[in-house]
Amino acid sequence: MSLESLPPELQTKIYSFLVTSFGPSSIHALLKVSKQLYAVALPLSVQIFRNTAPLQVGNGLCSVTRNAQFLRYILVSRPELAKKVDTVILGGFADRNVEGNSHASSPEELEIYERFIIDSLGPTLGKVDAERRDRWIAHLKEGYSDAQISLILLACPNVKRLYFEDSQDPSNEEFFEKPPSFMFLLEMAQTLSVSGVSESRPPPLGNVEHVHVQSQYWNTCGWEQALRLLALPQLQIYESLNATYQGKLPEDSTVLAQLPKSSVRSVAFHQSHAPASEVKFVLDSCDNLTSFEYISAMWMPIDGSLSQGIMRAVLPHAETLTHLHLDFQEDCEREDWRENPHGLYLGYELAQMTALRYLSVGMQTLTGMFDPIAIKPQDMPLRIEGAPRIVECLPEKLHELRIRECGKTIVSQAAELLDTIEKGQRFQNLQCIMLAFKDENIAIEDIQQGFPELATESTRYSLAVSFQNRAMRWLDSGRGKTFEGIRAIPSLCSRIFADDLRRDWVDFRGLPTVHTKTYGKSDDTCFRTHRVNPILRMQRLLLKKPPHEFGLDD
């Protein structure tokens, strides 16, 4: 039986596996086989629109010429295909024509685009909005990538996933201006979702469910863009990579007051430079948050990004938050503990997270204890006085607990937790516990001595004890600057440049690795939900790279 003899619906399902988010897509080859395959494959060929810097670079501006070609295709040549675009992946888009190509679109095409913008936004705009719309049209004629990208997003009503880099202007890396057309589009998305234009024209960005923003930490634009994205009516997932440390602007608070509560359920700040106060400002816009992840940006701590501050940011979501993953790069020297030592651990407030089911956290963040062999200032204690024991701060209904970057100091508290569970006194739902120790600081014999009465056939929980070397802990944080073939990968957290590796990374981080001992339940399925063997996954994530390129501490 040939492919062409199958029903079109089944062919579509088969061919969809040829669509990829990076590199050449094999789906385009089918367009040249036959008229029948062409008809089935054509909608799939525009399913993902990608316009980023070359893969060898890994980040940078999108192409004005590529934007113009796609606009011509979906608004002039084949306008029926605009509804088939469901994923848009973009490099940085500037608020000026950095390529110097103002003739990428013909006058006839520009006239079509102008009419489309006017019709889509409606004829009843106020004076200020009409002026901003006309500025958008003028920038489109001048070949600004910001204006082109905004039109693409306006023209494609069924986009569900939007992954992009923040606006970039290579002539001035120290100051970012908000891309005017994109910001106007975000405002119109909110305005038109309330007032509407017509039944035949849905509000822009009305079907976006997943946003991934890859920033530059020197971005000075504040949080208005994030707040407006969070206000999109169907948004479920918001991810920020390399979030700015510059802080919110005075007008951001005004914007937040004007926006409805966000429908987003999952928020992630990966490699974040944002202090806890700014994270709380963003999370305050969420009304039904169920998942939150925060990974600190670098080996040196970020001012204002202490564990307790993040705890206060998520505490208002205690009744809805079920998934919490925190990584504060505990391998680094801590210079911030002296002024506020109690800020280094989550504290008793953690126990108030009544809905929490999954917790992944470092030893120091959970217990306020330091690894005694780690390099540290001479006056740093082994434990912050007043920090609660594990059994005192864990949420009662927790199902799965993963503690990373462990040292010998945690063994006695972990043994107390296991004894409490085994006796059935508390934590009745805690089925899976994983302790990931620093491989260089502890041996399996230390674990066995620390748990002398550990039940090997416990029916109450499964305990996995793993040992991670520094490279594995480095992978856990997502700091994967490296190369794979022609791809430059600035971070394993990047959906723009490493979406496939990112899936492996999410499965891999903190999981039991090669040196692992599992106690308790013989059924350890809670640690085996991954699709790939952990050893193979680790080899895939530790990609080979030129020796002169990024080192482990970059």
How would you describe the overall organization of this protein?
By secondary structure, this protein is α/β, with parallel strands linked by helices. It is 33% helix and 14% strand. The strands form two sheets. The protein has a 13-stranded mixed β-sheet with strand order 1-2-3-4-5-6-7-8-9-10-11-12-15. It has a two-stranded antiparallel sheet with strand order 13-14. β5, α10 and β6 form a beta-alpha-beta unit. α18 runs antiparallel to α19. The N and C termini lie far apart (54 Å). The C terminus is likely disordered.
Question: How would you describe this structure in keywords?
Answer:
disordered C terminus; two-stranded antiparallel ribbon; 13-stranded mixed sheet; alpha/beta; 15 strands; 554 residues; globular
